[in-house]
Amino acid sequence: MGKIFKQLARHWAVCLVVFALLFVQAYCDLSLPDYTSRIVDTGIQQGGIESPLPQTLRSSTRDALSLLMSEEDADALQNAYGYYLQDDGVLKLRTDLTAEERASLEEIVTTPDIVLYMAASQAANGTGMPAQGMAPLSEYPAASSEAAESAASSENTEDTAAPTAADLDTVCAQFAAMAQMPGFSREMIQQQLASAMAQIDETTLSSMASQATLLVSLEYEAQGVAHDVQMQYLFRVGGQMLGLTLLMVVVAILVGLIASRVSAAIGRDLRRQTFSSVIHFSNAEIENFSTASLITRTTNDIQQVQFVCVMLLRMVAYAPILGIGGVLHVLNSSTGLSWIIVLDVAVLLLLILFLMSVAMPKFKIMQKLVDRLNLVSREILTGIMPVRAFSREKFEEERFDKANKDLMSTQLFTNHAMVAMMPFMTLIMNGTSLLIVWFGGKAMDNGTMQVGEMIAFITYTMQIVMSFLMLAMVAVMLPRAGVAAERIDEVIRTRATINDPDEAAAKPAQEHENWQGEVEFHDVSFRFPGADSDALEHISFTAKPGETTAIIGSTGCGKSTLLNLIPRFYDVTGGSVTVDGIDVRNMPQAQLHDLLGYVPQKGVLFSGTIDSNLKFGGEHITDADVKKAAAIAQATEFIDAKPQGYQSPIAQGGSNVSGGQKQRLSIARAIAKDPKIYLFDDSFSALDFKTDVALRRALKAQTDNATVIIVAQRISTVLHANQILVLDEGRLVGKGTHAQLMASCPEYQEIARSQLSQKELDLKSLNTEKEGE
Predict the structure, then answer these.
(1) Phi then psi for 114, rounded to 5 degrees?
(2) How far apart are CA 584 and CA 519, in angstroms?
(3) Fewer Cβ neighbours under 10 Å: the N or C end of the chain?
(4) Which DSSP letter does residue 162 get?
(5) Helix (H) or strand (E) holding 710
(6) Cα dihedral sign for 619, 622, 628, 634?
(7) How far apart are CA 464 and CA 484, in angstroms?
(8) What is the pLDDT of residues 79-132, one digit of tens each?
(9) pLDDT 10s digits, 576-614
């Protein structure tokens, strides 16, 4: 996992932007339940009235409220409404009030609002206040707490009528008349109210508090603006909800866009780094990883990391913000249901830990099984012709089927673990909703919770569960991505055993024309990594410019291995290989390879055209060089026969040309480069004798000033070489011309007799002697 976060750390600035956007998205997401609660509780149940302090107030209602306050509070109320008298006689609340002044006024009017509303309710049910005496008023709150609680929960019952604006007007008129009575005292009313309120328990007082807004609703109804106030509130809060939703959508789109670009950049960089490492690997590193595994790591593994990086930025970073925010909202609420969230979180954690402990080991196996499937597929597809020739289709199908089923069974196990998570999560979500509705209903019955609060609580709980679900889904993917990241990092961290020398050790570079191309082996020995014995032992020879050096020997004697030491496909384990007296290990590889024209044992062509393949040696190769090289390689005839000539397409691997044509194009590619040293690794094996002779004759004229080293199996190919090296089990057992070796080297004689008749041997020996004279 550390490797994945290391990749994300390289894009830290963009990740910080993503985190900031996620906080904005979470804020919007966590605010929406509060707005829903406000719309239900305030906008619908309370008619859009948020405060016991009305925005507009008739003078008659203000006077009635003032009688239920102290003189100081009455003056404050008078001052709050006294300067904005409207044409219709309605007073308007001042807009320049500070937050502290507004909160103080709300506290002042709450109790008078409650008393005035209960008086209006009493009047609506025919038990209105008498014109004289304060006894009913003093007895009402204490004696009618049950009725007050009922009024708070339901405005209409079979026995109780809800008060109307007319009832409020009646009560206000009664209060105005009472204030004119002889012996009226504001202090007496305050004492009666204080005594009455002291007898009411907290639960009843809490339920009675909602009646303060009910009085405001009656006041707005009397003014004829109740519907307008409610709709203004709903439009305002609904508009804010819509704005937050649109902002959340925009932020989510931006997060998705940025996360996708970051993950794509990470995938691009990983592919670049992996390929850059692989392209500089020597044969030893390639064989250590295997081609199939390197392909899997460069494609499938990087795709896994790239996908998980998107999930990390979009889900893993967002889920904790959403979950913690939801928990804080729930814990700060006064619903008393926080224990449900604690239980919910504990069950979710246990579920995720259990699933991870079951599924994680399988993910570590899965990537190896993908490697195995790719290996089997690659072997079968590249060797399809031998498979058919030996009628091994059934065997290969069974081998592929086994690798396929092994991968399938592991994938099924991990998929079952992921699929099992969803029903358990659904069960937890539904169980949580059931608990909230059950205990929330009881809280609503007791008057300690409203409908909107319960809706918001359920929404927050679902957000918490969903955040855990997102974490669980990503947690299932993380182990496999972690394994993939380790495999990618293993390739990137692997250093090639063959490297350019340090600047201090490197020989000064010189122009291509200044090189002679003389190759010399000084007591060279070589052993493959992990082998018990040397593949080459104490090889010494010199290949001079203008001469042809041929290497011949039995199969597996080390001919190709010896040739591969010159371009440093492998490094010698003993002795040294020099070019113009400079050890190849002290030369930059690019400079060394610039001197070489290499033709591998198996012709390799690249997808493109004949022209692009022949110009593979560098941009300096012209069309004239291409045609000249093709003519020397005896490829002009079949190229000109194609409708598109040199622009004829070449399929991947050269599958649309024959073996001989592929070999000739490979030779032409090396000739077109005009190198100082030609390396032919058994490159004439697919040519017929006539083409072989014509090609070597044309090649000799081209390579008069170049060093030519040929690995061959056929005597006819090496017969006229200036120097023939005979290898036997990695040792140099003969060196000389054909005539010299026929006289002194039993191993060479054995090879010659196995390929040529005695008459041919006598004739070729005679021709060789004449050419030598």
Answers:
(1) -60, -45
(2) 10
(3) C
(4) P
(5) strand 707-711
(6) positive
(7) 30
(8) 888 655 555 678 888 888 888 988 899 888 888 888 888 888 888 877 654 433
(9) 999 988 899 888 888 888 899 998 888 788 888 989 988
